[in-house]
Amino acid sequence: MNLQEQILFDICKETTTKIQSIESRNIILRDRLCHKRVLLVLDDANTLDQLNSLCGSCKWLDSGSRIIITTRDMQMLRGNGVDQVYKMKEMDESELIELFSWHAFKQSSPTEDFSGISRNAVEYSGGLPLALEVLGSYLFDRGE
Fold first, then answer.
1. Confidence at residue 115, expressed as pLDDT on a 0 to 100 scale
2. 108 shares its domain with 48
């Protein structure tokens, strides 16, 4: 199931037959969504094609609808009908270590024995909070 079909199923509760044409999928998606208020969250969008195929135009949606897009590519949002941009402050190393520690050790900071591993986890994750949560939880589960 592609993302357009998944959106139709999640929002409209309809199972549609496979539609081969992108244009046909866009028409069906637009027709089904234009009368519904939806909250559409597009996480880690990285191409304009993704945005256009999933939400095409703000005119596709009811006036009460909202689209939240997370992306690291701010240029993609410029000039595409985006009303408001909020730039998240990146977490510093101490915040990242604390996040990892809560998931790995269930405390705000690692013991001295695990401080090196915690710094390595932060570096390995590239500072991505979700990756740190997953790594920390995995480590905690292994310790039990």
1. 93
2. no
Domain range for 24 is 3-76
Say how far apart CA 105 and CA 98 lie, in whole Å: 10
Q: How far is CA 136 from CA 24, 75, 104, 105, in A?
A: 44, 32, 4, 8
Q: Give the chain's mean pLDDT.
A: 80
**Residue ranges in the chain assigned as alpha helix (H):** 3-12, 22-33, 48-55, 93-105, 115-125, 129-143
Q: What is the DSSP string of 16-36?
A: PPP---HHHHHHHHHHHHTTS
Average pLDDT over residues 64-76: 80
Contact (Cβ atoms closer than 8 angstroms) between residue 108 and residue 101: yes
Q: What is the pLDDT of residue 86?
A: 83
Report which of residues 42 and 91 the model is more confident about. Answer: 91
50 lies in a domain?
Answer: yes
Residue 84 pLDDT grade (very low, low, confident, very high; cuts 50, 70, 90): confident
Helix/strand/coil for 111: coil
For the chain, the domain total comes to 2
